[in-house]
Predict the structure.
Amino acid sequence: MMNKETTKTLPVLDMSCAVCANNVEHTVAEMEGVKNAVVNFATHTLTVTYDGDVISLDKMKTEVQAVGYDLIIEEENASEVQEDIEAKRYRLLRRNVIGAWTFAIPLAVLGMFFMHIPYANWIMLFLALSIMLLFGREFYVNGLKHALKGSANMDTLVALSTLIAFIFSLFNTVYPQFWYDRGLEPHVYYEASGVIIAFVLLGKLLEERAKRNTSSAIKGLMGLQPKTAYRVSSDGTEEEVMISQLQTGDLIRVHPGERIPVDGVVTEGVSSIDESMLSGEVIPVVKQAGSKAMAGTINQQGAFVMQATGVGEATMLARIVRMVQEAQGSKAPVQRIVDKISRIFVPVVMAISVLTFAVWMLIGGEAYFSHALMSAVSVLVIACPCALGLATPTALMVGMGKAANHQILIKDAYALENMCKIDTVVLDKTGTLTEGKPSVVDSYWFSESKKIYLDVLFTAEKKSEHPLSIALLEWLEESGASMIEVDNFESCVGRGIKMNVKDRTYWVGNRAFKDSFDVQLASEAKLVVKDWSKKANTIIYYGCGSTLLAMIAIADSMKMTSPQAVGLLKKKGIDVHLLTGDREEVAKATAKEAGIENYKADVLPEGKEDYIKELQAKGKIVAMVGDGINDSQALARADVSIAMGKGTDIAMDIAMVTLMTSDLLRLPEAIRLSKQTVKHIRQNLFWAFIYNLIGIPLAAGILYPVNGMLLDPMLASAAMAFSSVSVVLNSLRLKYTN
């Protein structure tokens, strides 16, 4: 039976805290046929890798529903369905916040300042019960669901704390004599029940608003693809159809100013396209018949017809969105530690709350019953697993979104967390440091009147089939050369070409071909040849008869930004190494030009992997940067793997990070973003842990023996709401950090 291992990112519904995310993750991960399951509470998504022969998405959905949550498994418009549901939930949450505070403000005023007016307790009972039933009902429904299944979450803490305060207050309202008989004053805490719910709802609303901003990058990418396209029928007419109706092979007309709907090849027309969203290049690219056009890019001038080659999930844009989504759903190593803590967080807090009540009762007996109860309630309210659960994923989401805006695609949270630890970078040469194609880098002319000679050379190379002729033609076209009439064109395989123009014999070729025409080099020309040879350039000789007209140097030229990128990496204290399968002199010249001291030539693919192993054996944390199939082994071996965006699909599939513009300057930028993101994760975790470590003992009444301070449950609920919001806001700060 063929293995159908698939990775999907599915929206999860009805999660209210980080504990819920752990419940869903654990449920799916335990199912047979599931290889890996990760739930991101910040994005409310499940990223699952599973064997389609063993388990289906429908089965997963059923199991998740059984533990009180839901999955959206419809692939075509899952994100839209999730967005609609979340928008409705947000509107309901906003309504509940407004309603809860409308009742909570008079309730708090009565409870604090006018508690002795006639029927005050009954008025407060009505206000608190209205808040609990009308606006906080979800806490009790969800809390009960989880209790029946033997689990607990944030809703459990809110439901327990408010019910305890309410039931105690109700008892004191209906039967105050119980306390009078014991010489004690009966107290009610209706305001605690109502205001706790109001604060928790407000915290959730602020949290949701902030979380929406953390996912703005991915929403921006998804918004680049238009909803409709103009499909051209066989009779030449066009009709506007939904993107989902397009199929591979369809002809689509793109008008000026429109975004290109799918990936395809231009079949008719000429235009210029703004591809900056994919490449980062602001200069429009001219497209004509045979040119590739990518979904999401913008047609600027002319109209054209294209044939679809990639639709739906098969487009480059969809692939980028998928990569970013999966990356945002992945977990950094530090998050796994936090998840273990979150899993036991609620039961531990409930145990501390019971212990708090017991200790107070042991210390003061019945006289301290109110203190004991309110301290236990405050412990339940102030504890916040959400702050812990949001600390890492929100920072990762913002960091990855910011990276995507800089044309850096990070596929894995591990890479984002560990890029800042890199101390060694190993670079491939061709396509990474260099352009990856031959081009003319220098020329030396022996004649002043070059125009006719350029035209002859252009004509010769137009007729040539030599691989280097493309480089020569590009250079000649920039020089303004044009075609002329020639006679007796002859290709001399392995040496060069020759032809006649007006009874004169012109030739282009290598050194051996030059020598066959008995051409001698002057001393100055020999120095030029020596210099070019040191740089490992390929030298083309061009002459007429026994007269040498020009020498042309061809090489795989260095990208303009590569030496600068190497310099920035070295400034960061990172060792830079060059590995290439090219010969020694080429490697040496390239390394010197780029400013790299450590290089190795004539390296086979397995040799690159061995080189990285050797570095790792010395305790180095190694990043490998490459773009070809021959780099795939080394990429897989490296601690952090980085592919160039214009390289092979295999390299990009293996790599954790892709530099979409193939500009090496993106690498120091990626390392800088990694450092910023990790810094914010640490800040978030510090405050989340410190908040709970300080807040829970404070709520339990640890300061009461010192200064008589007891934390009011209302203040505890405000502090809990603020903790989650502050973590998300700190993550958002990363967006605006330079």
